[in-house]
Design a protein that fits this description.
The protein has 550 residues and is an all-alpha fold. It has helices spanning 5-15, 24-34, 38-60, 64-74, 77-82, 94-101, 103-121, 123-128, 130-135, 143-168, 177-204, 208-232, 241-246, 258-277, 303-329, 336-340, 344-353, 358-391, 394-398, 404-434, 443-453, 455-471, 480-496, 500-504, 521-544. The chain starts with a helix and ends in a 6-residue tail after the last helix.
């Protein structure tokens, strides 16, 4: 499309009397129709993910002494980095515990939801060519971004109301109705801020994955800035949108004014996004696409080489993230026992893991979380094949002599190798930074083996994703349920004493938790066989069905 096409379409809408926002309402209703399943799933997951721990607090911290012991343990640089500002500890009742331990973590999930939602309804529409068809009608040049932002804001407000009503109705001491309303509003305000951030990132790059990646990088940076500020007791946390949400001190001081910072930042970012949107062509990004070589290398003529080229940005980004994540836990292994052992909840949870030492049990718990994060990449890489099909780009590729099995197998190979590589990288980083701080011989090797043991679980996750792509392509997003379920059960299961059958429903629940458990080949071989069956079924289904685009 020419450089004058976008303004021309905007002027067409303006001449009809609609202005630059013409068609916003129609696009908003269309967005609601498209996300009629995604939105309830997000709202249910985020609400239940908060209610479950909140309802368990009275059982886990039955007495004031238990809560005081938890507060004393959290009052360390590591504890504050993982949770939130020290001021919450001044009166550690159930409400302030909820704000301290859960708010910062759940706001990250809300930020991810907001970024993905804005990118889905803006940049993805341009990348697939649907936006060009829509803009050919009476639609203003700002309508699509406005509709995406209004939809995301409405979902965040709905989440705030659900959290306020559900938490306020629990009847737990310290969890007041006023505090619950502020607690929900803090989630919504932070989510709206990251929606504004996404309004800017979708203007920068012409690819939806790049726009989402930039937005999610801002979410991660906001968390790191908040953690650095709270651990040092400095004002650095005031530079983070997540820090603003936590500075409300819901259930403790109930300060509403910090949320004004979230809303002001969201408004400023959205305004910048609208201004930048008219400085680029439809379908293009502000950052010019780098010129490639005149001739492709021989590697790009193979299915695997071509798949690697498509995946390399996400592969490198995830590798850096997993490396940093593994290194962030390692330095704390040496004094983790003195910092956390006074908390009855953690002592009992780690005792249930059965480790010979506190460090062994903690490593087993962290390794589960690292495996779940690696599974996120495995699913993303596998579902990239579905995204290529959905965009229509795979049809001309398969019109050549390339078979469907080889094409899908290229993307699948990246997932089957890349996911385990991410996990091993994080395991090596954890071992390299943590083993020297602990007087346990052989811990380095045990950590690496613990990481390798989760590889079959990653393969099962990727296998389920490719099976859905092969047989039920429109429902392929259901593969994320495995990752979300494994994350919830792995993160809260041991602490909140979930029944064993819940863990057994996840492929990650059958992996021996090294170093607290001895290595066993049986579950790994069974999971590998299941993964092979799922992969074979997925490839067979993809070979038999028609290509589907939406």
């Amino acid at each position: 499309m020419t450089a004058t096409a976008t303004p021309a379409l905007g002027r067409t809408a303006e001449r009809t009397g609609g202005g630059t926002l013409a068609g916003t309402g129609v696009l908003l209703r269309f967005g609601l129709r498209r996300d009629r399943v995604r939105i309830p799933v997000w709202l249910a997951a985020l609400t239940l993910g908060t209610l479950w721990p909140a309802a368990a607090f009275p059982r886990l911290y039955a007495t004031a002494a238990d809560r005081q012991a938890a507060a004393a343990t959290m009052n360390s640089p590591a504890g504050l980095a993982f949770t939130g500002p020290e001021h919450y500890l001044s009166d550690y009742h159930y409400g302030s515990m909820l704000g301290h331990q859960m708010l910062g973590f759940m706001v990250i999930m809300v930020g991810i939801m907001s970024v993905l939602m804005v990118a889905r309804h803006t940049r993805t529409e341009e990348e697939t060519g649907r936006a060009e068809l829509v803009r050919a009608a009476v639609v203003g040049r700002h309508a699509q971004l406005a509709a995406a932002l209004i939809l995301t804001i409405a979902v965040n407000i709905a989440l705030a109301l659900l959290l306020a009503l559900s938490l306020g109705s629990l009847g737990i001491d310290g969890v007041t109705w006023g505090g619950s309303l502020l607690y929900g509003a803090a989630h919504a305000a932070a989510g709206i801020t990251f929606a504004g951030v996404a309004a800017v990132t979708v203007q920068i790059t012409e690819h939806s994955r790049g726009a989402s990646g930039l937005g999610l990088a801002v979410v991660g940076a906001a968390y790191l800035v908040r953690a650095a500020g709270d651990s040092a007791g400095s004002g650095l946390s005031w530079a983070s949108p997540i820090g603003w949400a936590q500075q409300t001190f819901a259930y403790l001081d109930d300060r509403w004014w910090p949320l004004l910072l979230n809303l002001a930042a969201a408004a400023a970012a959205a305004a910048i996004g609208f201004a930048l949107s008219v400085r680029r062509d439809l379908g293009a990004g502000l950052r010019a696409t780098r010129r490639g070589r005149s001739g492709a290398s021989r590697v790009l003529t193979t299915p695997l080489g071509f798949a690697l080229r498509l995946h390399r940005g996400m592969l490198v980004g995830f590798a850096i993230g997993m490396l940093v994540l593994g290194m962030s836990y390692g330095p704390f292994l040496g004094d983790i026992e003195t910092r956390l052992l006074d908390v009855d909840m953690l002592r009992e949870a780690l005792a249930r893991l059965g480790g010979a030492t506190f460090v062994d049990s903690f490593v087993a718990m962290i390794m589960m979380l690292l495996a779940v994060v690696a599974a996120i990449y495995a699913v993303i890489a596998t579902l990239r094949a579905r995204a290529e099909e959905n965009s229509g780009r795979v049809e001309p590729v398969l019109a050549t002599g390339l078979s469907r099995t080889r094409w899908l197998g290229g993307h699948l190979t990246v997932a089957l190798v890349g996911g385990p590589a991410m996990l091993l990288l994080a395991g090596l980083a954890l071992a390299a930074t943590g083993a020297p701080t602990v007087n346990e011989s052989g811990l380095f090797g045990e950590i690496v083996v613990a990481a390798a043991a989760y590889i079959p679980a990653l393969w099962v996750t990727a296998g389920l994703a490719v099976a859905l792509v092969g047989w039920f392509p429109r429902a392929s997003a259901l593969a994320w349920l495995v990752v979300v379920y494994a994350g919830v059960v792995g993160y809260f299961g041991t602490i909140l004493q979930f029944p064993d059958w819940m863990s057994n429903l996840s492929p990650f629940g059958h992996i021996p938790r090294i170093p607290v458990e001895s290595f066993s080949w049986t579950p790994l071989l069974i999971l590998t066989a299941i993964a092979a069956g799922l992969i074979a079924a997925g490839l067979y289904g993809f070979r038999r069905r028609d290509l589907i685009t939406t």
